[in-house]
Fold:
Amino acid sequence: MNNFKKKFNSSKLSTLLFYSSILAFIIAFNFAHNPPGGWYQQFMPNLNGRSISDIKFLDSLTGYAVTNNLTPGDTGYILKTTDGGDNWNFSFTVNRGFAAIDFINLTTGYACGGSGGGTTYLCKTTNAGLNWNFVSSPSAAKWESMSVLNNDTLWLVDDDGLTGGVFRTTNGGLNWIQQYSAGSQNPDKIYMFNPRIGFIVRNTSGAPNLRKTTNGGFNWFNVLNEGFTDMYFIDSLKGWRAYGNNMYLTTNGGSNWVVQILPSGGIILSTGINEFSNINSDTIFGAGGIAFYGSGQFRSIIYKTFNGGKNWFYQVPDTAIHSGTYQHIQFSDRLKGWAYWVSGGIHTLSGGDTAWLTKIKNTNYAISTDYKLFQNFPNPFNPNTTISYELLVTSNIELKVYNIEGKEVSTIVKKKQNAGNYNISYNGSSFPSGVYFYSLFSEGILIDTKKMVLVR
Structure:
């Protein structure tokens, strides 16, 4: 004991604790003022102009993605990653574009799509994407969406007015039954919760009808005149759907839906969720909103709720990429997740950035009361629409259109204009279907920006 006391000097301990405290303070200070980003960027290989149309992660490492094609008969791709999206490899290439991909386990999955004009395509893998084989399916224009229940039972939908509808197989594609056909109202989206309960909708219609089945698709009845871009049910009664600028919750199987308000205003140019990923009934991640940081500088928004959507929070990932909006989001657990757009995305191993915001950040510009920019009409449009604005003072005006990547695609107006009301006709026939933004500038200063949707 005496030897121990001789070796142990209390003054040295005090000195050690002092310097340790200083070191801890420095580390804490640097961490607080230079916090590490919760997201990092991931890249796809060269897709030769094609866009990601769907993505599916089976666990924290294994994932698949499919692309569209540029023209009928052109090639589309299936890609696979085995390291969480850091590297992607081509798994399958075929002369069709893909719309959706889904897996029932780590080895068995389906991918569907087509090119229009009676060139539908359904393929299947039973060895984790090493090989993909054709599966017989009805002759239709293009499979827009599918719902895979198990190895034998799946549904396909096509919105073509002549050959489309809802089709079901219960023997892996050997035989198909057309369960629904409504001509111009054929659906482009399907979600099946279980073998009996599911929903369909035609989002491209001017007045979408959300329909439900309770007998596996043999009968469908109208629920309400709204659509969905994504849907998920935690049980037969409680579920969520994304549509327009909101999230919706039902607790009675879809008979009634309650709107869940998302953050808006300030730097948030466009609020809304395209896709969402449920961890459980409380924690949900969503993607689809856009923040604006000055002319041409668009940044994607990630949303999160901790209480089933009663309150939604948001963050703008601090990455180098300034994409317009993330179209796809998926989490394998509460920490590991991905958000992707047309040709790449971001990945988190920590559940995103540490800060989830509730209040709206102000930006360094304000909408002047001397100018008003109105929502275009019709919207969605094909291919013509009218953009209106009001000037209370004479000034040099610019009206510009941006694509979803934040790139300027056209300048509609660029001249000095007197005070008054203006209606500008815009033709989008030279651009592909998708989300666009139009911005009004006065004397080079941004006044306001609004979203419009071109449906071709």
Summary: The two ends are 87 Å apart (CA to CA). Residues 104 and 150 are 6 Å apart (CA to CA). The longest strand covers residues 408-417. The longest helix spans residues 10-33.
